[in-house]
Write a structure and sequence with these properties.
The protein is 27% helix and 19% strand. By secondary structure, it is α/β, with parallel strands linked by helices. It has an 8-stranded mixed beta sheet, sandwiched between helices. Helix 3 packs across helix 10.
Length: 443
């Protein structure tokens, strides 16, 4: 008997290969728990809450420090299966988990990604809906809504109109989850079309609705993010592969331009959680046959991985007082792209700003003091697996312990409702976007 080989085999994780089939709750839980046990040094499995019927809302974290946030390590997340009958995203995320953990230490990109990022993956936000589907259909099944018959992607607070609906347990769990982590970039996975859609999903005149669109102050970044995903998916980038006669140039669209919705999750993430999120529609058929799943994985694997890397766009750092103490809840924004709910430092004094290459003026605001401005230049070729790091030490006299920094986040009310006219966010940014792409891809 070859004892050295036997000992080596005992040291290697023993996880059965993940098959291409639909994994209902019991099988999904078994897989996630096996991964968490077999790769305990780089994964952490936890539930952020329960569905109406009491099913766990599982999240698997992948990273070198999976159980806790580390300064300088951005948080990324994927969420799937908000609509129970949209199933491709759920299975893709399970295969993404399998790919990440089995390629750590083998594939340099995956190894670096795991070392530089905390990756949160929620395969199913609506497990009750998934289990309720009795007769799968390409267009609509009875599991779209949760057990209380609420569409979870219409159930969040809305920044444009009052979304006075009963918040569902799944929605409340996600909202609380967003408060516990410093999420920087995210995507939610859907089905029924083939396109990468970016905010806003709803809007008012101040965001450009008179022009049949609704743009954020970071529209150039969002177009780039959506294009990053779509351009690596051979079918999505064509923009016309579904039979619904809707054509999406380059496979991307502004959400409002496609069709307005209120209470969507991606707008909520961007406005109230300081997290850039896009929506990925991954299949013309919402619930395709199992034998189609391998082709979906092959079409989306490169996009899923490349999109995660974009969490390292732009600039990051900490804000300190003159004595080197990190300052939480300090507003850090780029001049001329202020958010309706200002972006603030977290409890470690950290900030993360997703930005394309160029020169920017950062405005740091502390209550009771004049704004502090500093310039930053983000090079065309960013550092691998790290945004540009720029710590900011405020040149204030005396201790800042006495500064009354607000711990209150913006109220979840229609913040945009009373804004007059048009804002800078409505200005076309396609030219800037295309110029930036030329710099990035042809440098």
């Amino acid at each position: 008997m070859d004892f050295p080989c036997l000992r080596l085999g005992l040291l290697l994780p023993l996880v059965a290969a993940l098959d291409f089939s639909y994994h209902h709750q019991e099988r999904m839980e078994e897989f996630l728990k096996t991964v968490a046990q077999s790769y305990s040094s780089i994964t952490h499995l936890h539930s952020i809450g329960k569905s109406v019927e009491g099913r766990n809302l599982w999240v698997l974290v992948v990273g070198r420090f999976p159980k806790t946030h580390r300064v300088g390590i951005p948080e990324f997340k994927y969420v799937a299966n908000m609509h129970g009958d949209e199933t491709v995203g759920r299975e893709l995320l399970l295969h993404l988990i399998d790919y990440l953990v089995t390629n750590d230490g083998k594939d340099p990109d995956i190894t670096n990604l795991i070392s530089s990022t905390r990756i949160h993956i929620m395969p199913s936000m609506n497990p009750d809906g998934f289990e309720a589907v009795q007769k799968p259909d390409c267009y609509y099944s009875n599991g779209r809504e949760n057990r209380n018959n609420y569409d979870l992607n219409r159930n969040f607070p809305d920044a444009f109109v009052l979304n006075d609906v009963s918040r569902q347990p799944e929605t409340v769990a996600v909202m609380q989850w967003l408060k516990t982590e410093t999420f920087v970039l995210s995507a939610n996975l859907h089905g029924g079309a083939l396109v990468a859609s970016y905010p806003f999903d709803n809007g008012v005149q101040a965001t450009g609705t008179l022009f049949s669109r609704s743009l954020t102050p970071d529209d150039d970044v969002f177009q780039y993010l959506a294009y990053t995903y779509a351009s690596r998916n051979i079918n999505m980038k064509k923009g016309d592969q579904c039979k619904n006669k809707v054509k999406f140039p380059n496979g991307i669209t502004n959400g409002y331009s496609w069709y307005p919705i209120q209470g969507g999750m991606q707008d909520y993430n961007y406005i109230w959680a300081q997290c850039f999120e896009i929506t990925l529609e991954l299949s013309c058929c919402k619930y395709p046959r199992e034998e189609k799943l391998p082709s979906f994985w092959n079409s989306n694997k490169a996009s899923l991985i490349e999109y995660m890397k974009q969490v390292h766009l732009g600039v990051k750092g900490q804000v300190f007082d003159q004595n080197g103490n990190p300052l939480p809840n300090v507003i850090v924004e780029v001049q001329d792209r202020k958010h309706i709910c200002p972006y603030k430092t977290n409890k470690f004094g950290e900030y993360y700003l997703l930005l394309l290459p160029g020169s920017y003026i950062i405005n740091v605001t502390v209550p009771g003091y004049d704004p502090y401005f500093t310039e930053v230049f983000i090079p065309k070729k960013s550092q691998n697996f790290s945004a540009l790091t720029k710590d900011i030490r405020l040149p204030f006299q005396g201790q800042l312990n006495s500064i009354q920094v607000s711990n209150l986040s913006c109220p979840t009310i229609p913040l945009y409702r009373d804004l007059p006219g048009h804002s800078a966010a409505t200005k076309p940014s396609l030219f800037l976007f295309l110029v930036t792409l030329l710099h990035i891809f042809f440098k």
